[in-house]
Amino acid sequence: MEIFGDTATNVRLLMDSGASTSLLLYTDTSPELKLPPNTIKGQLGMGLGGFLEGYLGRVNTLGVGELEMKDVITNFHEVNHGADTTLLFERNGILGNKVMSRFYIIFDYPRERLFLKPNKYFKEKFEFDKSGLVLLATGVRLNQIRVHDVIEGSPADEAGVKPGDVIVRANSLPSSFMTVEYMHNLLSKREGKRIRLVLSRNGEKVKVSFRLRKLI
User: Fold this and answer.
1) Domain residues of the chain, as ranges?
2) Does domain 133-211 have CATH number 2.30.42.10?
3) Which helix (H) or strand (E) holds 181?
């Protein structure tokens, strides 16, 4: 696969259908894998050792054979040198299910071939959370949506949302009808959309309001 910034870079990627991301690049596996100008620091997800810290941005173009995808949301992560990286350094990153879901895919294992055909989702824009909230499902039944982190300078940060807050209501919808995926979709809507949240903080109800804004 190729990544196009100022120049084209060939990369080897692990296809991981269980990774809820578009593209993750290990920046220290190649000197050509540099951070783009517009990035935000944040938590990329959770691994066996806890949350992965890194940067979020976009690559101009991701080329798969003759097919190209534009403005692909990308996680940039530095490899933990304390771990066994023997296999890790045979690849430059991970291709996640937010790219894979845009194709019909056939794996021909005996002949070591891969067939890709774009589906109806191929040309959709890559959307990213525009609030700055990092959310987790918590509680015994995972039915509680808790704010794990807030990106500094984001709309949610400016509105006063704090880590540890629990979402009680979002735009008049009670949390009992919501999932983390629902919230991610809501917070990735069009720029300028108003979001109203009722939060539980230390036993008290807190109301906040902000408008979504493109972060990357």
Assistant:
1) 2-118, 133-211
2) yes
3) helix 180-186
The C-alpha atoms of residue 108 and residue 88 are separated, in whole angstroms, by 24
CA angle 23, 76, 41 (to 5 degrees): 125
Q: How many CB atoms are located within 10 Å of the residue 19 CB?
A: 19
Put simply, whether the predicted model's pTM sits higher than 0.70 gets the answer yes
Give φ, ψ of 26 to 5 degrees: -90, 105
Q: How far apart are CA 126 and CA 131, in angstroms?
A: 16
Give the DSSP H or E segment for 159.
helix 155-159
**AA letter at 80:** N
- Domain range 2-118, CATH architecture: Beta Barrel (2.40)
DSSP run (H or E) holding 3: strand 2-4
Distance CA 4, CA 2 (A): 6
DSSP assignment letter at 154: S
CA distance 132 to 150: 6
How do residues 160-210 score in pLDDT, each as one tens digit? 999 999 999 999 899 889 999 899 999 999 999 999 999 999 999 999 999
